[in-house]
Amino acid sequence: MPPTPAVAVTDLVVDRGKRPVLKGVSTAIAAGTVTGLLGPSGSGKTTFIRAVVGTQKVKGGTVTVLGEPAGAKPLRGRVAYVTQDASIYRDLSVKANVAYFAALYGRGRREAMRAVESVGMGDHADKLAGNLSGGQKTRTSLACALVIEPEVLVLDEPTVGLDPVIREELWDRFRALAEGGATLLVSSHVMDEADRCDRLLLLREGRFIADDTPADLRAATGTANLEAAFLHLIRELEAN
User: Fold this and answer.
1) What is the H or E stretch that residue 239 is in?
2) What's the rounded Cα separation, in Å, for the pair 104 and 17?
3) Boundaries of every domain in the chain
4) Strand bridging mode 68-69 / 79-82
5) How far apart are CA 91 and CA 106, in angstroms?
6) What are the residue boundaries of the ABC transporter domain, all occurrences included (predicted)?
């Protein structure tokens, strides 16, 4: 019997107003993996992510996370969500921000500082969040999520606007988390990040046009890179 997936989505339908945003998508995300959710702006990535963390009203289908309905009370402290805009308090220091989120989930200051240091913000722990650079704010927001030691970590375009060095550091951190057993769902519209994932969900106009490993996706489309593979799939759809 195959292992139970960390996240299982079946026939998920979401409308915004009278416009369909997700059109019956299904997938299963294995525990201890990094899954990339890729697609152009407006394809439904953020809506899908919000459904996984239980903050999105859905029209139909099911979303199960760690064996519970998405957003269920037992998932608090087991699932963490890092939004596109850093969810931190500008008038608090880095360490105070993380300590606040730590206290909400019964963690102490020691755990908070460990989370701060794990994202490379130890030297900036006493700085006010409002005075941080964009990349530092992103890392502080990530520390606020990591302090609860989540089993599932959902990140909505966490590397947008960051320089290549910080992006590299964050992806190294994501890989280390997965190797430690955490399950990560990371959205992006940057195709060069796709090869860092164990599996890819390619979303276009509210539907998955691929759900495969990077290597198998390249092989199936006969292309040398994932951007070319994505374009190949789009052209196939338009031709049919």
Assistant:
1) helix 226-239
2) 35
3) 1-72+184-240
4) unpaired
5) 23
6) 7-230
Tokens (6 digits) for 84: 């596109």
> In the structure encoding, which two tokens stand for residue 1, read together?
């019997």
| CB contact set of 105 (below 8 Å; sequence gap of 6+) | 76, 77, 147, 148
How far apart (Å, rounded) are the C-alpha atoms in residues 217 and 232? Answer: 10
CA dist 158 and 50 (Å) reads: 15
* Whole-angstrom distance, CA of residue 183 vs CA of residue 171: 14
Taking residue 67's Cβ as centre, other Cβ atoms within 10 Å add up to 12
**Closest by Cα among 193, 197, 132, 138 to 162:** 138
Closest CA to 192 of 30, 47, 86, 36: 36
**9-57, pLDDT tens digit by residue?**
999 999 988 899 999 999 999 999 999 999 888 889 999 999 999 999 9
Topology of domain 1-72+184-240, CATH:
Rossmann fold (3.40.50)
Contacts of 192 (CB under 8 A, 6+ apart): 227
| pLDDT number for residue 170 | 85
Partner residues linked to 65 by β-bridges: 7, 68
214 pLDDT above the threshold of 70:
yes
Cβ 45 vs Cβ 187: under 8 Å = yes
